[in-house]
Amino acid sequence: MDLTPTSFYNYYHPDPLRVVTAGEQFRVTKKRKRVPINCSLCRIRNNCIRQGGTETTTCVYSAPVTSEIENIQADSNTEALQHRLDRLENLVLTLMRGEAVVDARSASATTNTGSTSKADNVESSTGAHRGQTPENIRTEDDNIDDLATSLGVLSIEPKNGNTVYIGQEHWQTILTDILELKASSARYEQELGASYEKIRLSKPLSATAGITLLQGTAPPATEFELQAALPSRIVILTLCSRYFESIDNPVVIVHPGAFYEELFSHWENPSKTSPMWLGLLYSILCLGMLSYHRVGDEPTAWKGRTMEMAVSFRLRTVQCLLVADYTKPITPVVETMLLYTFAEYATRWDADMELWLLISMVTRIAIQMGYHRDGKWFPCLNPFKAEMRRRTWALLTMADVMFSHQVSLPGMIHNHYCDTVEPANLSQDEISPNLEFLPPSRPKDELTPASYMIAKVKLCRVMSDILHATNRVDGTAYEDILRLDTRLRQTYDDIPEHLRGPPLQDPQETAREIMTRFSINSLYRKIVCLLHKKHLSFGRRNSRYAYSRRSAVGAASETLEHLAVLIRESQPGGRFQTLIWFLKSMATKEFLTCAMIVARDLYHDCKVEDMNLQSMSDASSFWTSEQTIKMINNLEMTKNFWKSLADNSKEALRASKMLEIILAQINRTGMGIRHN
To answer: Where does the record place the Xylanolytic transcriptional activator regulatory domain (predicted)?
Structure first.
């Protein structure tokens, strides 16, 4: 779903079921009268203009407010006060679409009759002072009873009743308080709408149609037809070899030795081959052909036909799943459905809600088959099967958290009910179906085909816990955020250096090594951003949270810096021009959050500098001039890279447009020139 920053909630609605339509005039309501406090701008000798629209200047001094703060202070209960402050940190502005939005929080707020919920009064503060941001106006002594927690956005289309919920972690919610985006939304939404239709028409049907398995559009087929549709043996061996040579994580869930034994057995006696195993074969053929398509090094005989052939193999995979009845817990249904999921994912540039539905279905089937419990507990599983199940569960864990995060919705897997350990760091030839005992894992510094998966699943498990914590409807204490930060950094430090350092280290390195390290590095820094994102605004006003601001913006900026280097080196004639497909595939899935965090921080810094309000923020000293220039340059390159992908990706188009508006505002203030 595409979100537009067209309006904000400043107060909760008394009626939890009230729907705000697009044409309804925005109106502020309060649950109870509050004693106003004196204007924060008066404290720094600036004029105050009332929200009513008159040009008269009035300073209002409130009577002493008897609030719970005073009661807590009177009791010297600093721990309770800090807890309430931590709850206040979860205050986030809520986006709403132009059609209709239901304030999700109001339903739960009605049960808490002892307090009044209130968001930052954006309309008041921004209307009163030219371009001033709510961050700079809100003060720490606002009544601590005024608590709110964003529960995301609920969009209802009146025409067809289409109802979609998007969680508050969506990348576009980072920019909800940028006035220029709000003012320009109507104009660029029309441009985007026309461009979206152009993108849809330019793509093949396989990239725009829904997921075949969920849509039920696959024509029925018999086992005999599926057997007969297999390509020649030489084609099968070529594509299987291509699949097993890939660096992608799905490779390790299928053991090449065991698979080739089963393949030769199939050729000897096809009648004994199960439809589900046939589906596994078709999914491998599909991924192998997609590898040729994205790199562009396909054999001459397949030139220009790789996508068409891959889609054909993918359709056969679906037919095999249907013939075998994928709802039944039979081997290898989980592996086949996982590979099919990645075959669908490989042809989609943007986040896809159907992928989230598909991976949640695969997860439930895997749990039904006990993949979430470690194989060591079950004597019926030999060491080889137990180890391969660990690899499959690791890939499923990563897919669950990544696909869920991309659509800003909860994942299916919770680590507290799983005890399946990470796979062993072993090469493929060290394990086989006839193993009596699993050999000891190699040192973590030794590179094996499983090393990348092991490192990534460790980070994804921490990411899962972080998303569950930061999206709690009752909030998360800042101390818990810091504990998760420590755990995340320890996990990252435990990853071998050759997997987590800067992407470009040695001119002699292979593309495989660079891609692996860049992926791990980017994932870690994105998790840092997600952990500290909610405290960015607080970090501008309160030194207690400056660590969160520096961590999130610093991690985001470093990610964009690495991306910029790889973009330059991946251009025609560059050292790593074969990596361009990899960067394009990650561009709108891994870097959106990072770019928006950097853009938002620079935007508010330029506003502070433009209004000469350094006394309200440490923006003038928080980042060095060199850091500021580097962030602006990296945003420019990221924007241009997304613009180059705009013909294929709606999210790249929208993100590039948003960055264009923000960077134009930054350049108008001369921020880059002042820091140069």
So the answer is: 355-429
